Amino acid sequence: MAVAREHWSERLQRFDRRWIFLVMAIAVVVPLFFPLGLPAKPDPMTKAAFNAVEALPTCELDPATDQPRPGSPRCARVFVSLDLDPASTPEIEPFYRAVALHLKRKHARLVFATTWYQAPPLVERYLRETVDAAIAPPGTDGYAGAPDAPYRKNVDYVNLGFRDGRGAIIQQFGTDLRDAFDGHADDGTPLDRIPMMQGLNKLKDFDLIVLVSAGSPGAKEYVQFVGTREKLPMIAACTAVSTTDLAPYFQTGQLIGLVGGMAGSAGYENLVGKPGAGTAGADVLNIANLVVIAAILFGNVVFFAGRWHRRRGGRR
Q: Greatest CA span in the chain, whole angstroms?
């Protein structure tokens, strides 16, 4: 007696799923080492964050005096709150690096602080790599924008350090920033002896507030405790899962820009003109999503082909 030939859908139903895991691993690893440079189109919230920074005045400094040249606009003053931990850095560190380059191109005076106890080691590394050193010096491969230059501590930027207190300390930032840090920078230098801190006593005195926020306390507390009351111009970057929590604040104008997750960071890098880890990460997400879609289509084709075969009298 002849044995009925097995239908192809029945053979594929015994497909070893470990091949899919292998393909997914390749899809994740390869773009990290060989970026594909897939287009990262910025969304409207990311464009709004970029435009908020772009609208800041760009001062031209006299090298001899480190003061704006005659006729140049004054240097913008920006408060940067880095409220994050190591687990969130893959998503929002690319944004920080891109916005740091953007702010340095405009010669903005920067004041850094954090309300997360896990953040100070990260902040010190960020300042060492992105502020004390140039991010995009002349001749940087793949970068056609204006170069930046190293900043000098307590001259071009100030690190206030860490303060705990969740919403209460953020509220104090809004009323008396100097008192919140006992009148000293993180290295112990009295703020009264730092020329760039003249006139900077509270958040309202800054031209822009940049919030790199991985959770609570973070962007939401800045909006709730001080941003809305003082009508502060604030932009924020957050993880992808937090985007839906903060998007309503953008829609109501309480945040004038919002960068959500790695895709948003990639979009901001695209606008700044210097692809980095965000763009590479977006490549990984895009390729991995294609693999998932292909696996779903494959499974459905096999399932419906098998059912069609059985209804036509094929072997069960």
A: 101
In the chain, where do the E strands start and end?
61-62, 67-68, 77-83, 109-114, 157-162, 208-213, 234-238, 257-260
Beta bridge partners of 78: 110, 208
Does the pTM surpass 0.85? The reply is no
Upper half-sphere CA count for residue 177 (Cβ side, 13 Å): 26
Taking each helix axis from N to C end, the angle separating 277-311 and 18-33, rounded to the nearest 10 degrees, works out to 160
User: Torsions phi, psi of 62, nearest 5?
Assistant: -85, 120
Question: Are the CB atoms for 281 and 111 separated by under 8 Å?
Answer: no
Nearest 10 degrees: Cα torsion 116, 122, 123, 124: 130
> Torsion angle, CA of 39/44/49/54, rounded to 10 degrees?
80
What dihedral do alpha carbons 90, 91, 97, 98 form, nearest 10°? Answer: 140
Cα 228 to Cα 79: distance, rounded to the nearest angstrom: 16
Q: Which residues of 135-174 are buried (b: 16+ CB within 10 A; e: fewer)?
A: bbeeeeeebeeeebbebebbebbbbbbbbeeebebbbbbb
Using DSSP's 3-state secondary structure scheme, residue 193 falls into helix
For residues 1 and 312, the answer to whether their CB atoms sit within 8 Å is no
In order along its 316 residues, the chain shows pLDDT tens digits of 556 677 888 888 887 888 888 988 888 888 777 777 777 788 999 999 999 999 999 888 777 766 777 777 889 999 999 999 999 888 899 999 999 999 999 999 999 999 999 999 999 999 999 999 999 988 888 788 888 889 999 999 999 999 998 889 999 999 999 999 999 999 999 999 999 999 999 999 999 999 999 988 999 999 999 988 889 999 999 998 999 999 999 999 999 999 998 889 999 999 998 888 878 777 788 888 888 999 899 889 988 888 888 887 765 4
Residue with tokens 């990260």: 122
